[in-house]
């Protein structure tokens, strides 16, 4: 016996439902059955609940958990620089790393700072070359460089109380490629710069504090370090100034260095100390 189509649908109402013909049983947010073959509630073929085709839970097409389309874990749309990866934990101690940047300090006679031109958190690194017996480079602030070296923490075995450094083994592991653009310093308050989390973020980067008052003297006993606002140390690694207690500075600028158990700003020249 031939049954009209409408009659057939009336006998078997489940055949009138709209749904997929695949093996999952999920439904979309609106209550409609999903049309893909996985076991989640969206319409793509992966196992998460967003609508893209990757395996994370955000809505972009990369495989990290942030909402942008690059492959790193922050929320911006650019890929992290190698210096940023050195400082943010992407690389492990002992890894060989090749990176480029601009020399952002004078040469201390055994090491110097290198920065990304954009500045900001995780944008600088301390480069130690004193282990290279054949070292013959003359390094100047502003040089654009490409460097290959081993990522280490100094002093060894003292983490987290260390500075991350790149150790160059030979003269050939660095090339000076031209002149770079120095980053602008990041302006922070002395309160911010005395916070351990902020210190780690800005280790080896160019920073600046403003309207600071000298509260601790520079003496031979403390290696001519001096203190401002009872919070931040200033060191003479590159340039020495011995201010009076109570003196005020409009701004103090320099890389944020770590040594002898403390973070400190290291002004590069007289211009970094404005009164």
Largest sheet: 5 strands, mixed, barrel
Q: Based on the coordinates given, report the CATH architecture of one domain.
A: Beta Barrel
Question: How many DSSP helices?
Answer: 4
Helix content: under 10%
Biggest sheet, spatial arrangement of strands: 1-2-3-5-4
What is the name of the CATH superfamily of one domain?
Nucleic acid-binding proteins
CATH topology category name of one domain: OB fold (Dihydrolipoamide Acetyltransferase, E2P)
Structural class: mainly beta
Q: End-to-end span in angstroms?
A: 102 Å
Mean pLDDT: 83
How much strand?
A: 25-35%
Residue windows where pLDDT falls under 50 for at least 5 positions:
1-34
Molecular shape: globular
Broad CATH class of one domain? Mainly Beta
What string, H for helix and E for strand, traces the elements in order?
Answer: HHEEEEEEEHHEEEEEE
Q: Rg, please? A: 28 Å
- Number of strand segments: 13
Tell me about this structure.
The protein has 275 residues and is mostly beta strands. Among the domains are: 82-179, OB fold (Dihydrolipoamide Acetyltransferase, E2P) (Beta Barrel); 186-274, Beta Barrel (OB fold (Dihydrolipoamide Acetyltransferase, E2P)). 9% of the residues lie in helices and 28% in strands. It has helices at residues 5-11, 82-88, 190-193, 196-201; strands spanning 96-103, 111-115, 124-128, 143-154, 163-167, 174-179, 186-187, 206-216, 226-228, 232-234, 248-259, 262-265, 273-274. The strands form two sheets. A five-stranded mixed β-barrel has the order 1-2-3-5-4. A five-stranded mixed beta barrel has the order 8-9-10-12-11. The chain starts with a helix and ends with a strand. The model is unreliable at 1-34 (pLDDT under 50).
């Amino acid at each position: 016996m031939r049954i009209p189509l409408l009659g057939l649908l009336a006998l078997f109402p489940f055949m009138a439902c709209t749904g997929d013909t695949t093996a999952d049983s999920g439904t979309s947010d609106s209550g409609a059955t999903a049309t893909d073959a996985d076991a989640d509630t969206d319409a793509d073929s992966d196992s998460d609940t967003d609508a893209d085709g990757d395996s994370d839970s955000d809505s972009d097409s990369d495989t990290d958990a942030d909402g942008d389309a690059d492959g790193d874990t922050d929320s911006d749309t650019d890929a992290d620089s190698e210096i940023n990866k050195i400082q943010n934990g992407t690389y492990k101690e002992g890894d060989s790393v090749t990176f480029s940047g601009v020399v952002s300090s004078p040469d201390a006679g055994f090491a110097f700072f290198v920065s990304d031109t954009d500045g900001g958190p995780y944008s600088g690194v301390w480069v130690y070359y004193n282990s290279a017996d054949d070292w013959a480079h003359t390094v100047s602030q502003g040089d654009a460089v490409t460097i290959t070296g081993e990522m280490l923490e100094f002093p060894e075995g003292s983490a987290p109380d260390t500075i991350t450094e790149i150790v160059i083994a030979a003269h050939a592991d660095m090339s000076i490629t031209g002149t770079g653009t120095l980053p602008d310093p990041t302006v922070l308050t002395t309160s911010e710069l005395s916070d351990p989390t902020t210190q780690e973020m800005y280790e080896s980067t160019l920073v600046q504090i403003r309207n600071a008052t000298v509260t601790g003297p520079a003496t031979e006993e403390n290696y001519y370090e001096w203190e401002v606002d009872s919070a931040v140390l200033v060191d003479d690694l590159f340039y020495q100034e011995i201010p009076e207690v109570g003196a005020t500075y409009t701004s103090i600028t320099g890389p944020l260095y770590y040594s002898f158990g403390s973070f400190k700003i290291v002004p590069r020249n007289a211009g970094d100390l404005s009164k």
